[in-house]
Every structure is written in structure tokens, then in C-alpha cells.
Design goal:
2 domains, six-stranded mixed β-sheet, four-stranded antiparallel β-sheet, 48% helix, elongated
């Protein structure tokens, strides 16, 4: 079989590298900030941060290198770990044609149901604007569209033109784009964040606000991880700063539910330096 990988676009690689470096830098930083406090707090902080960093390494650095589509005689295999793995026979394909979802909005991804979406790079499971489920492996809007019985498959690997030529020779010939069919399809507007994620962010944000209120107004400093009253110079100042910081994070979690995946990325990127400053400031109080 001939294997065609999908590489990160340059701008996507830069963004992914920045996120990965920030995650890796947080591990020694958390250890350095908590090493003089509680041993349990330091171990817990490093463990959680390291686990998150390992997950990001897999999703950003490892999984994209294992993303590919392979062509055999009458068989097509699609691998987008850890989200989807398909083996498609030529008999499973109801239609195969070229399309650009910027020109045919019905094929544009509307909701990420289980996949990666960074800038123009998409790999995994999505819902299209026509309401259909789809497996996408592409770094742009011009794709090979395969219509199966229960879903769509949208592919645009590296060496796209060579891939199309071999696909037509070994799988099935390409057909004209059914523009009339796609134009007649009722479009589903992108719903943004999935409902369950909205509920999680809303509930978590309200809970974080409540804990911040307890710290700010009730002076319950023991709720702060690694708190040691023997090392605190001004308990009132610490309560005010820490409580305000926690409540701001809670309000941000409540607000971010109204945005899509990119809103979550912005929230995470802003949170990192903000948290670093807060930890530094609290160690001075």
C-alpha cells in the first residue's frame, strides 16, 4: 500500500510548538514554586502538570506523525489517532469527488465531535454544516470527498495531486461535484461549544467563583493548595489577592462557554502567564 501522511502547516506547527513549550515549562515551574511548601502539594502539582504535558506531547507531537491515508488495490485506509481508524472498500463508496468547502459551505466542518482542529489543520471526527458526520484529514479546504452510507470522509494528505491520481487508478474514478445536491441541503449553523462542555464550564466556573468568595471574604486560606500560615506575612492581603484571582478565573470559565474551540485556546494561552504572575505575587505576601 502507498502511504500518504498529513503534515502540520507551518503556522499550525508554530502554534502547536508554543503550546507544547508552555506546557513543558510549567512542570519545573510548579515544582520550583511548591518545593518549600507541602510535599504532597508539590507532588500533586507536578503529577497533574506532567500528566497534562504528556497528553499534549502525544496529541501535538506524536499523533500527527501517525496520521495518514493508505491506498491499496480497491482498499483505502485512513488513520487519525486517537480519533478514527477506517478501512474503506471501493464498494463502500457511493460517490467520490473534489470539493472546496469554502465554495460549498454544506461540506464545511461545523462541530468538532472528536478530533484535532488547529488553524487549517483538521484530523478526526467532525459534524459538517449539512448535519452529516464526517472523518476529516486535511490541512486546507480543498479535499477529496467520499460519501459513504453513514458518513462523509474528507481527505487532503500531502502530495494531494499524486494521491488523487493513484486513488482514481486503484480505488474509483472521480465524479463531478453534485452541486445541486449540496446546494439543496439545509445547512446547520456551527453551534460553537457542545452543550455538555457548556454545562461543565458553567458548573465549574460557578464552583470556582464560590471558592474564591470563601477565600476573599471568609478568609478560608486553607482552601489554597500548599498554604502554610507560618510563611505568610500578611493573611488579609493574601486573602484579597488570591480570592480575587480565583473569582476572576471562575468568571472567565463562565464566559468562555459562549465561544468555540478557539475561545478555549485563547483562554488557556492567557491563563498561563496570568497564573505564573499570581503564584509569584502570592509567594511575596
Amino acid at each position: 500500500m502507498t502511504v500518504y501522511p498529513l503534515s502540520f502547516p507551518q503556522e499550525t506547527a508554530w502554534l502547536s510548538s508554543l503550546i507544547l513549550l508552555l506546557a513543558l515549562a510549567m512542570v519545573p515551574f510548579i515544582w520550583w514554586q511548591t518545593r518549600r511548601r507541602s510535599r504532597i502539594a508539590a507532588l500533586l502539582g507536578v503529577t497533574v502538570t506532567a500528566a497534562a504535558a504528556v497528553l499534549l506531547i502525544y496529541l501535538i507531537a506524536v499523533a500527527p506523525r501517525l496520521t495518514w491515508v493508505a491506498i491499496g488495490d480497491g482498499v483505502l485506509k485512513v488513520n487519525t489517532p486517537p480519533y478514527a481508524r477506517l478501512e474503506i472498500s471501493r464498494h463502500d463508496i457511493l460517490a467520490a469527488y473534489l470539493a472546496d468547502w469554502q465554495e460549498t459551505p454544506a461540506l464545511a466542518p461545523a462541530l468538532r465531535t472528536g478530533g484535532a482542529a488547529i488553524a487549517d489543520y483538521r484530523a478526526g471526527n467532525f459534524q459538517l454544516r449539512n448535519g452529516a458526520d464526517a472523518v476529516i484529514m486535511a490541512a486546507g479546504s480543498r479535499v477529496l470527498v467520499l460519501r459513504l452510507a453513514g458518513r462523509f470522509v474528507l481527505l487532503a494528505p500531502d502530495d494531494f495531486d499524486v494521491f488523487l491520481e493513484e486513488f482514481a487508478q486503484r480505488i474509483i474514478s472521480l465524479q463531478p461535484t453534485p452541486l445541486a445536491e449540496l446546494a439543496a441541503t439545509a445547512l446547520v449553523e456551527p453551534p460553537g461549544m457542545p452543550p455538555i462542555a457548556r454545562i461543565v464550564f458553567l458548573a465549574s466556573g460557578l464552583l470556582v467563583i464560590f471558592f474564591g468568595w470563601l477565600v476573599r471574604f471568609k478568609k478560608m486560606l486553607f482552601l489554597l493548595s500548599g498554604y502554610d500560615e507560618r510563611k505568610v506575612k500578611d493573611k488579609d492581603a493574601l486573602a484579597v489577592f488570591a480570592g480575587n484571582f480565583v473569582m476572576i478565573i471562575g468568571f472567565a470559565m463562565v464566559i468562555v462557554q459562549f465561544f468555540d474551540f478557539y475561545g478555549i485556546i485563547v483562554f488557556g494561552v492567557i491563563l498561563v502567564p496570568f497564573s505564573i504572575y499570581a503564584i509569584y505575587k502570592m509567594n511575596k505576601l
